[in-house]
Amino acid sequence: MAEIRFKVNGEDTVVDTDPSTPLLWVLREQLKLNGTKFGCGIAQCGACTVHLNGTPVRSCSTALAAAEGAEITTIEGVAGADGARHKVQAAWIEHQVPQCGYCQSGQIMSAVALLRDNPDPSDEDIDAAMRGNICRCGAYGRIRAAIKSAARA
Amino acid sequence: MGKWTRRGFIAAGVLSGGVLAVGVGIREGHRAPKLAGLVADEDETLINVWVKLSRDNTITAIVPHSEMGQGVFTSMAQMLADEMDADWEKVTFEQAPAHEAYANYPLGREFIMGDATVPGFVQDSLNGGFLRIAQSMGLQITGGSTAVRFTGMGGMRIAGAAAREMIVKAAAKTWNVSATELRTENSYVFADSMGLSAPYSDFALQAGKYAPPTQPKLKSPDQYTLMGTSVPRVDIPSKTDGTAEFGIDVDLPGMKYAAVMGPPVLGAMTQGVDDTYARDMPGVIKILDKGSFVAVVADGYWQAENAIRQLTVTWSETGAEQLTHEDIFQKMRAAMDAAGDKGEKDVTVGNVQRAMANAARVYEAEYTVPFLAHAAMEPLNATAWVRDGKVDLWSGLQNPLAVRDEIAAALDVKKHDVTIHNVMLGGGFGRRSNADYPLMAVEIAKEFTHPVKMIWSREQDTQQDWYRPASVSRFKAALDADGMPLSWDNLFTEKHDPPEASHIPYKIDNQLIHYANAEHHIRFGPWRSVDHTQHGFFIESFVDELADQAGMDGYTYRRKLLAHSPRYTKVLDTAAEAAGWGREVPDGRGLGIALVDSFGTVVAQVVEVDVTGPEPRVVHVWCAADPGYAMNPDGFIAQIESGIIYGLTAALYGEITIENGAVVQSNFHDYPMLRMDQAPEISVEIINSGEKVGGGGEPGTPPIAPALANAVFAATGVRVRSQPIANFMQGLS
């Protein structure tokens, strides 16, 4: 057990737990941020994607220790301070992307990071940034269209 | 149109006293009070089983299906609201509780029975099949693409129309005018001649006193205001900000977490659990030997999962410990050999033997498909709380009512002491129609007074599935001098549901379609489109081979064999035209076509494949789909796109293999999924033929594998007779 301090969605946070615990389970079970999903546990599906100091990481395979002193952003933290939807979230609704919706928190976190680093991504850029996120409902075409639409917004 | 109305009437009339009858809960002496207690809050009048009208004039559609991505809440509410002339902005939805009054048993019957095109002589066996399914799948089913075509057409629309008529009747009495002088719009009743208008809710109490009409008048398509429009899905905003609640998100006070482990060889039982290392691990509360599985309960899921991996479990021998998937294929082939031309009959038309005798030549081929897991994104999970003789269960279920009954039986409690809280499903695809995982959660939770959330690892989810069966299919066609088929002889293994999946859309005068099942220990589960997944591949690959034998392209040959059906011909033509069938494609590319009629929807797809890379890459899929009428066109297209990607993933990569009796694959690294960079462009064209309304969730899946296989043939000259296709191609290089 150890006290680990970090920021989650802008808020100072302290947890006292085994530092080898994957960040995913700390977010879900201790901080009750359930928008980040468990999919595979081995960084193969992307459902658990969050930002660690702005970089998308797979929280199922990121030890809590790695979050020490870091800024973590989850799906609950991507909307604007006024609660306004992020342009990626708005594009997701415009294109009616989600079906079952389970993978979409991770998809959106990957897309938000992509557009922040690359405001006008090509198809190849989208492939590279999004191929770590599996969608079993097969919404890939709509995800691509929504990313392009958010890039224009 | 007449046909739809008659269907609706049958649902409301013949099935009255059952679940579909409009207002079944309202009649005096019926179960209205009990039912009202379940679905009505204070200040709400229950006017029939599928609609609630609140005092603030909001209307709630009560949807007896589970939301697993198919937009069912939206399409059901849309159908209800349109018939009711409701204000869409004030329509909400609620999921029906697991209760007999909501059971869509007759819908399940319809699912199994198919429509009138099923030959009369197989009706008896269909009834048998239906009863078997009804027992095993239970009652409140989401599956078989039934939501729109049965619950919607037969239930929601009639409920909405009946509700509207009852409100109008109540308004006529209140205002003392003839009902014919009234009109309805946006949840208001208007008496234009008197200058009166009032919200529906003003008449709710009075309307609730009437017996509902058994034949409410339904709208014709020219009167639709919501049906046929792409109303945005109501559940989508919550799926973009993390607030949608799935089973895995359920959080209860004092809740603990469980990890589970089932037998590597399905069917084995525990014979000892060594927990020397696990029992003292951090957070571990209890280690449970449940016979058919073991569980570790801990303070957190990760602790439970870590500990369970440290258990040494001895499993009983089932006799399957040496088996491989190849052995299972051998069993299937042996069963087929033994059956010869005397397999269990599916279809017998004309005289195949006589046709063979008159044939210019006979052409044969054999195909196989592997076992497949479902791999829904949300690993299976369920949260149970057992105390004071009562059970509460939270889980994403395709069949909540059957789960309730199985829990009641397993724990020996009364059914009404079991409460099912159905939450959103992170994918179902058939897997969540089985009661195994909620039962396990209850078996664990009964050892405690606090709730327990059981989560399966991805490895358990992959290795403890109920699988799309591997199967073998053999074809023998007698051909005339032009290469056209005189007869169609198809012997296959693994007959499940729906019964018509092996039937062909083509006009061939002599047909023998029969099967021989082999016993094996890999358990069967319904997998998106069920038997159509394998038969779509088998039938449409073989037809393509026959086309080649006749020196024709796949489109022209099919068109000749579909001349009897303008509906099929139009779907085929639409896909072919969209794809530019017949055009020149670059070297290393090819076009393939396939057509499958499943769950009442006719779908044709053309695939353009590129084989110049290490594995085949699908460039574009052009799809034409005739569901009769698409209630929510964009929602329907999304379902078709989804079905294509699901089927394409399986066709390219999907393979569960068996070694030493156990499933080899365990996670996405060895059971790969199609990803963004491999996803083709998809174009979908809807044909609203006006035929009986078909399903949307499954019909996109069956044609994609054969369309791809046929495209590979066009590009390479090599026939694909097994899946996954990526493996098959690697075998060639």
Question: Would you mind describing this structure in some detail?
Answer:
The complex is a heterodimer of chains A (153) and B (733). With 153 residues, chain A is of the alpha+beta class. In chain A, 33% of the residues lie in helices and 16% in strands. Chain A contains five helices and five strands, in the order ββαβββαααα. Chain A has helices at residues 23-30, 87-94, 104-117, 123-130, 140-152; strands spanning 2-8, 11-17, 49-52, 55-58, 71-73. A five-stranded mixed beta sheet of chain A has the order 2-1-5-3-4, sandwiched between helices. Chain A is globular and about 45 Å long. The mean pLDDT of chain A is 97. With 733 residues, chain B is an alpha+beta fold. Chain B has three domains: 2-104 and 139-238, 2-Layer Sandwich (Aldehyde Oxidoreductase, domain 4), CATH 3.30.365; 247-318 and 380-455, Aldehyde oxidase/xanthine dehydrogenase, molybdopterin binding domain (Aldehyde Oxidoreductase, domain 4, 2-Layer Sandwich); 326-372 and 467-732, Aldehyde oxidase/xanthine dehydrogenase, molybdopterin binding domain (Aldehyde Oxidoreductase, domain 4, 2-Layer Sandwich), CATH 3.30.365.10. Chain B is built from 19 helices and 27 strands. In chain B, the strands form seven sheets. Chain B has a seven-stranded mixed beta sheet with strand order 10-11-8-18-15-16-17. Chain B has a five-stranded mixed beta sheet with strand order 13-21-20-19-14, sandwiched between helices. Chain B has a four-stranded mixed beta sheet with strand order 1-2-3-4. In chain B, α3 (72-84) packs parallel to α6, α11 packs parallel to α12 (436-445) and α14 runs parallel beside α18. The longest helix of chain B is centred in the first third of the chain and has 29 residues, at 147-175. The N and C termini of chain B lie far apart (55 Å). The interface between A and B is large, with 57 and 63 residues.
